[in-house]
Amino acid sequence: MRLSSSSSAWTTLLLFFVIQGSSRACTVKKLGSNTGRFANATLLRLSEFLSAGYKKGVRPVKDWRTSTLVAIDLMVYSILSVDEKNQVLTTYVWYRQSWTDEFLVWNPEDFDEVKQVSLPTANVWVPDILINEFVDVGKSPDIPYVYVTHNGLVRNYKPIQVVTACTLNIYNFPFDVQKCSLTFQSWLHTIDDINITLMRSPEELKEDKSVFMNQGEWELLHILSNYKIFSVDNDDYYAEMKFHVVIRRRPLFYTVNLLLPSIFLMVMDIVGFYLPPDSGERVSFKITLLLGYSVFLIIVSDTLPATAIGTPLIGVYFVVCMALLVISLTETVLIVRLVHKQDLQPPVPHWLKYLLLERAPALFCIHKKHRLCSRLSSQASDLDHYKDSNYGTAQCTLHHTCEIGRQHDREVGLLGRGLLPSRGPSPPIMNNILQEVTAIRNFLEKRDNCREVAKEWLQVGYVLDVLLFRVYLVAVVAYSITLGTLWSVWQVS
To answer: Is the pTM of this model over 0.70?
Structure first.
């Protein structure tokens, strides 16, 4: 009896070890103990272990009341384009997201201390987090794998070309700063199913520019983050994470190609006031500048951003510069009209003579009056020389006639004193000579009067030219200071 009981115990123990060995063999076979080249493939065994019974269409939590927390991160790599007309921003970002999958957990000791493995993205559950501002599908590379750690942490890192709608304010162009938002949220799941958080702190995210290509037109200032919970129908609440990408345009290219040529043309317009107003060169010079500025605006029209919302300040600047050139040309035409062909103009009115020739030089410190008078005298002498050369015969006749007139006056005086015997009536030739002398005298008096009128109008033109030039110069300087101050304030802020 004792022997039979002992043998039955050994038989039971033997059956236990046989059953346990066969269960281990089944487990190893189930985990992928294949023959041939896959005999010792640990990753293959681990992949088969993780995929056994896994359902990617089900949110990976054991307790359905537990919310899946998705941590996201954003790193801006490059600003590809900014379309002001269509209000579209194209960026290239590195997007990272991670979450815990409670069904993708294993013990590293059972798989040769493997603590992380890459799995196809199509075989695991991925949260439906999208960007609300998407307007077009960018040319983003397809990353088909995610990393999974032994404790169930899934990391999905991928680059994305983001084409998003953005409200672009170009009023300060080319010194503008743009702020565009990228809003990440689950398109379907409420906050009870999926919640969103940041991988890093907001301070680290704000100052991180490690991967940004900083050699383009746009400069990355910082990235701000804002977490928000909102509801559409006051029933279901959703979580969203909004990233504010703040970028600033580098204005050097536009300053060299737009602002400096316009400034040079305006300086040349100011220099053109030093041309004599009585010469015809100033009008042609101003017209040439106006035509050159018009061609310049046609060339740069494609460079300026075009929007239907408003006009950038630099466009207003160009329009005002064009208006100043037109005003300068108008002033030049007015001055040339005053100083040209003064002989055909009426005398200067007394009020105009009082204001421009007496009060204006004293009030506005115009110290060139004596120079103007000397110049007028020289021009009058030139005019006399010109007219005398044209009337040489009349000059000789005038000299001869004056001698005859003087002799006749002496004879009349002696006759009146009784020292010269009286003669008979004057012959007809003497009457003709006296008439000619009277006509010449009247002509000379009229010419002197015309010269005085010409001198006054020329002096009025010069004084008015100086006054208008100073007003024009003050307007240009005030306009330049205003624009420079505004742009400086905007750039600093």
So the answer is: no
